[in-house]
Write a structure and sequence with these properties.
By secondary structure, the protein is mostly beta strands. The protein has 1 helix and 7 strands; from the N terminus they run E-H-E-E-E-E-E-E.
Amino acid sequence: MVFWIKKNERDQLLGKEIKLYAQNEKSDKKTLLSTGKIEVLNSDDPQAPDSDSVLKFNAPLNLMSEGKWKIDSYVDKKRLGTTILTVQ
């Protein structure tokens, strides 16, 4: 997964562990879905304009049931963002 950042955040985030927590629309319970390490894009990755503002992480996603899922991403207990997925 890739995400865009402010350029001044790059050095603070590189090498950090990212944790993904999932919550199904039918539940109030958040569960740890996956973890990954934040890295820079390498030459094998699709390149984006202004790639100095893009970082990546690899984290497997294994959502067990259908429906809408809210995925919250955290680094050092601070939420970086939220993604909504629909699983069919």
